[in-house]
Amino acid sequence: MLNLLSFHPNPEAKKSYVKYGAAFAQSIGAKRGGLAKIVGSVISPHSTRSVDSKTQTTTAAKESGEGKWDEIALAHYPSIQHFGDMVASADYQEVNHRFRVGSLRDTAILCLSEGCVEGLWEKEGTEDKRGGEGVMGQEGRGVTSKL
To answer: Which helix H or strand E contains 7, and what residues bound it?
Structure first.
C-alpha cells in the first residue's frame, strides 16, 4: 500500500502520527504481516518547505497548493485480505482514531501489486531465479506483469 500523507501544520500532528507508526510496527500491522518498507518526506525542486531539526516537523507553503503531500509510506502485506483484516480490527481502529486520524489533514492510500516486466531480470542464457517467469506469487507460481 502506498500511503500519501499530509499533516496538519501543528508540530503535535507529526508526533502523533509517529506514535501510530510505532504501534503499527510493534503490533497491529506486524501481527497481520504488515511491514513498513519505506517512509520518507516529499520534496519539490521549487518548494519553500523546511524541516525543523528538533521536532522533525515539516512546514511548507501549502496555501498555494504546492506540496500537498508531506510524506509517503510504503507498506507491504502478504495479501489484500491481510490488509482488510487489519483495518477492520478493533485494535487497529483504536490506534487509528487515537493517533492517525487527527494528525492528518489529508491522506490517500493506493493499493499496489508486485510485478515484473518480462526479461528485466533475465541474463543471456539464464533463467530468472525468482520463480521462473517473474516474482513469486501465491502457491509458488511465477507472476509476470506485462506492460
So the answer is: strand 2-7
**What amino acid occupies position 118?**
E
Strand 2-7 and strand 50-51: pairing?
unpaired
Q: State which fold the 2-110 domain adopts.
A: Alpha-Beta Plaits (3.30.70)
Q: Please say whether the beta carbons of 9 and 61 come within 8 A.
A: no
Distance CA 32, CA 27 (A): 8
**Arithmetic mean of pLDDT, 59-64:** 48
Q: List the domain boundaries for the chain.
A: 2-110, 114-147
98 touches 22 (CB < 8 A):
no
> What's this model's pTM, rounded to 2 decimal places?
0.66
Pairing between strand 2-7 and 104-110?
A: antiparallel
